[in-house]
């Protein structure tokens, strides 16, 4: 009889997500995990709008399980692909998700990026970003003042 174990990334998915959410919350100076969740969801959606379906699926494969699910949730693959714009414009897009309940600071993209770099395979993530338009690497730069 073949015994198949559950991969560790799935066994520890909730724990990994809570760690990530705490990192994002603390980076942004937010008070609650709910505020952090809205910010993370908005940043992921803002990035997703700039990828082809093939690119988005490849990106999702680099994310931990819960972030992967958030990234693909409520995705209309028929939506037009947007260009990478300047960070202030994309930050306004982040802040527009559930506007009345969104506390994402101006640094939200960088705050989520900083947290994301802590939970992904860095060489693989960088290699993937290098295959995308220049705006993708800038989007995920933890220090956006460069």
Descriptive notes:
- This protein is mostly helical and 146 residues long.
- It has one domain (15-139): Globin-like (Orthogonal Bundle), CATH 1.10.490.110.
- 59% of the residues lie in helices and 0% in strands.
- It has helices at 8-11, 13-28, 33-48, 53-60, 65-72, 87-95, 108-117, 122-130, 134-139.
Quick description:
The chain is mainly α and 146 residues long.
How are the secondary structure elements laid out?
Blueprint: H1 8-11, H2 13-28, H3 33-48, H4 53-60, H5 65-72, H6 87-95, H7 108-117, H8 122-130, H9 134-139
Helix pairs in contact: 2-3, 2-7, 3-6
Strand content: under 5%
Distance between the termini: 56 Å
- Give the count of helical stretches: 9
Shape: globular
Low-confidence stretches: none
Q: Briefly, what CATH class?
A: Mainly Alpha
Mean pLDDT: 91
Please trace the helix and strand order, writing H or E for each element.
HHHHHHHHH
Tags for this entry?
single chain, 146 residues, mainly alpha, Globin-like, 0% strand
